[in-house]
Design goal:
Subcellular location: Golgi apparatus membrane
Membrane topology: Single-pass type II membrane protein
CATH class of the largest domain: Alpha Beta
Radius of gyration: 35 Å
Strand content: 5-15%
Bound molecules: 2-acetamido-2-deoxy-beta-D-glucopyranose
Distance between the termini: 126 Å
Shape: elongated
Number of strands: 12
Largest sheet: 5 strands, parallel
Structural class: alpha/beta
Protein name: Heparan sulfate glucosamine 3-O-sulfotransferase 5
Oligomer: single chain
Keywords: Disulfide bond, Glycoprotein, Golgi apparatus, Membrane, Signal-anchor, Transferase, Transmembrane, Transmembrane helix
Number of domains: 3
Order of helices and strands: HEHEHEEHEHHEEHEHHHHEHHEEEH
Catalytic activity: alpha-D-glucosaminyl-[heparan sulfate](n) + 3'-phosphoadenylyl sulfate = 3-sulfo-alpha-D-glucosaminyl-[heparan sulfate](n) + adenosine 3',5'-bisphosphate + H(+)
Strand order of the largest sheet: 5-7-4-8-9
Helix content: 40-55%
């Protein structure tokens, strides 16, 4: 028997098809003569069965890791737009739960601006069955949005579950002539919420906001009127009569706008919310709204508190705690009480017309 060289023994070994470079005779390692049929797997593992098992386990755990990562990413993505906890996702269990999708609103807060539409929306969203759209969508009042179609509108809505109500608010809907008909074309049985405040208070609040916006805007857009004019200068003509064309006053003449809504929708589909009461006694108003929307009463005194330190009204539920500032931090200017009385007398007759149209007396002061 001639002494074997490494290459000789390698050639005599049986090669499994896929690991051909891995198989060496034991003799090759010892570099002495050995039994050429005595072959071992050198690289990595010496037992193919164990190798296969380890490979399977590795692949399985890799798959599971990615599945869990994918699910948690999906969960946190949804949580960003939808605070309701999802049912836990187990392997392939998604198909057993109806998933959250974007739906057209079943209720809209149509206005009026500066009457607490934001506060109302925030309060309602404490309810687990309500999903609110972020920001003001301005779909029905702006042609450039309206002509993008309902699918564009739907994509602006939050994710919701079938038993939930989607709600959005855009205060300029109330005063834009085309809006009632456009909303009816989308859903003739939709529920509408209109929040109103005492008209003179609303007008002053409107003036305050416009003035604060004007102060931060480039001056040339305001032309010669740049020195800031007081509420009184804008609301009254120099001869003392009321400037009915002044926009903050015009918007407070609610009956001029509500009549169009009442011609388009049955009265039962519109709920009038008293914005002054909403701040003084939120629960009374919220319970009416839950009832109107056909929801179980879930919001309670526990959800509202007044923070004495901050001086703000605050809202909380299991998952969130936030405080509202009625005027978003802007202080109302002092307006001469005589001017306020004058304006209230002017509004008295308009308010009566509004009460008659909606069939509710809001009890606003007449001077
Ligand atoms: C709590 O309130 C927040 C914000 O208003 C809302 O998004 C969330 O869905 C509410 N959570 C529950 C459990 O109702
Ligand atoms: C229309 O609005 C009503 C009232 O909220 C709602 O029940 C209904 O599902 C809505 N219809 C469509 C098609 O969204
Ligand atoms: C007061 O002035 C306004 C505009 O300057 C005018 O339209 C109005 O008729 C005047 N009213 C009276 C009572 O003179
Ligand atoms: C009220 O607000 C203050 C200041 O932000 C805060 O420290 C305090 O905890 C709040 N009180 C309550 C009852 O939430």
């Amino acid at each position: 028997m001639s002494p074997h060289t490494g290459t000789d023994t390698r050639r005599s070994c049986v090669r499994p098809p896929h690991f051909d470079i891995l198989w060496l005779p034991r003799a090759a390692m010892r570099s002495v003569e050995g039994d050429p049929s005595d072959c071992v797997l050198v690289v990595g593992v010496s037992r193919p069965k164990m190798a296969a098992t380890i490979l399977v386990i590795m692949l399985l755990s890799l798959f599971l890791t990615f599945h869990i990562l994918y699910d948690s990413a999906l969960n946190s993505l949804q949580a960003a737009s939808n605070d309701r906890p999802r049912p836990p996702t187990l392997l392939f269990s998604k198909q057993f739960y109806p998933s959250a999708t974007r739906r057209l609103p079943q209720a809209i807060i149509i206005g009026v601006r500066k009457c607490g539409t934001r506060a109302l929306l925030e309060m309602l969203s404490l309810h687990p069955a309500i999903q609110k759209a972020a920001g003001e969508v301005h779909f029905f009042d702006r042609d450039e949005n309206y002509y993008r179609g309902l699918d564009w509108y739907r994509m602006k809505m939050p994710h919701s579950y079938p038993e939930q109500i989607t709600i959005e608010k855009s205060p300029s809907y109330f005063v834009t002539p085309e809006v009632p008909e456009r909303i009816r074309a989308m859903n003739s049985s939709i529920k509408l919420l209109l929040i109103v405040r005492e008209p003179v208070t609303r007008a002053i609040s409107d003036y305050t906001q416009l003035r604060s916006h004007a102060a931060t805007a480039p001056s040339f857009t305001f032309g010669t009127s740049s020195p800031q004019r007081s509420f009184q200068q804008l609301a009254l003509h120099s001869n003392g009569s009321i400037n009915e064309a002044y926009r903050p006053l015009a918007i407070s003449v609610y009956h001029n706008y509500i009549h169009r809504w009442l011609e388009t929708f049955p009265r039962e589909q519109i709920l009038i919310v008293n914005g002054d009461l909403l701040i003084e006694d939120p629960l009374s108003q919220i319970q009416r709204i839950e009832d109107f929307l056909g929801l179980e009463s879930k919001i309670s005194t526990h959800n509202f508190y007044f923070n004495e330190t901050k001086g703000f009204f605050c809202l909380r539920n299991e998952t969130s705690d936030r405080c509202l500032r009625e005027t978003k931090g802007r202080k109302h200017p002092r307006v001469d009480p005589l001017v306020i009385s004058k304006l209230r007398r002017y509004f008295a007759e308009h308010n009566q017309k509004f009460y008659e149209l909606v069939g509710e007396d809001m009890g606003w002061p007449e001077e």
